[in-house]
Amino acid sequence: MSPRERNLLIGVVALVVLWGAWRGVTSYRDTLASSQARLFDASETLANAQFQADLAQRALRRLERWQEQSLASDPNVAQSGYQAWLIGAIDQAGLTLDNVRPTGTRERPDAYRVLNYSVMAEGPLDAVVRFLDTFYRLDALHKLTRLQLTPLASNRVRMELSIAALIVDGAPREEGMPGESDDRLRFASADRYVESLDGRNLFTAYQPPAPPREEPAPRERRPDPPPKPPFDDADQAFLSGVVGAGSSLQAWVTVRTTGEVLRLMAGDDLSVGLLKGRVDSITPLGLIYESEGERWRVPLGESLRDGKRLGAVDAT
User: Which intervals of the chain are annotated as region Disordered (predicted)?
Assistant: First the structure.
């Protein structure tokens, strides 16, 4: 084989080797990009599943609270029990009862049943106020759908009410009524509401008493209220994934309020909403960032603002 042929053969072999290496690198890059995309999709699916699970937990807590406030689970027991409670509340308030009668039910299967009542009673206005105080202190799922007051002689009124009360499916109470709660009203006693009616006629236009004629004192200008704090997108910025290996780990931060995805390496600047800082390090399970002289660790799947404080940044 002549030197020329040998050199030509070496050149051909080198081209084949380079072509094979290029194909191998290209295939590796394509595989890596596909794997990273699948990892990102899986991280997004996991984050959405966690969000839906949180919503379900909140809904379950609300349902359990409503079940505690429900009337008795048996409709017959609930109807007679609530009717007896209304009669007792009217009598205790000092009203004269005309009648309390059920006016029908309405049901949404597998959810709740509405019991409707009609009430008629007479008495002084302060007795009406005391009854309403008792009504709204009861920690039950009930409401007035109609309230009509008609003036009578001797400072008495006729009270006509329409009431709706709920039985929630799955309510644990078999008999009896929910208790009272002082948190439902502003004042702890009905006396405070009765005092506000002193000397007032609710069936005429209210005329406030004339103010005393005196020179008003100079008013000091009130300072402007502080501005509302701006919304911080960092509260909704979640560490949704970590890709790569070794020293080339890359953290993916999803800003849910904007849909933006930040791809960060160790040493990169970090800027989301009001949060300004720098990525200190990244691990497969989370990242550490520095902001305002403090170091914070954020686990995978958590918000940047929910990170754990590690301490001050080492000045050295």
Answer: 203-235
Enumerate residues 6+ apart whose C-beta is below 8 A from 31.
Answer: none
Domains recognised in the chain with CATH numbers = 75-174+188-197 (3.30.70.60), 233-309 (2.30.30)
Q: Report the residue count for the chain.
A: 316
Q: How many CB atoms lie within 10 A of CB 142?
A: 21
Residues contacting 236, CB < 8 A, separation 6+: 255, 256, 257, 303
Summary count for the chain: helices (H), strands (E) = 4, 12
Under the banding of pLDDT at 50, 70 and 90, the label for residue 214 is confident
> Is 193 exposed, middle or buried, given 0-12, 13-18 or 19+ CB atoms closer than 10 A?
middle
Secondary structure of residue 254 in the 3-state scheme: strand
pTM of the model: 0.50
Query: What's the half-sphere exposure (Cβ side, CA atoms, 13 Å) at 311?
Result: 2
Say if residue 23's pLDDT is above 70. Answer: yes
Locate 295 and state its tokens.
Answer: 């170091």
| Half-sphere exposure in the Cβ direction for 275 (13 Å, CA) | 25
- Which residue type occupies 276? K
- Token code pair at residue 252: 């993916």
Beta bridge partners of 166: 114
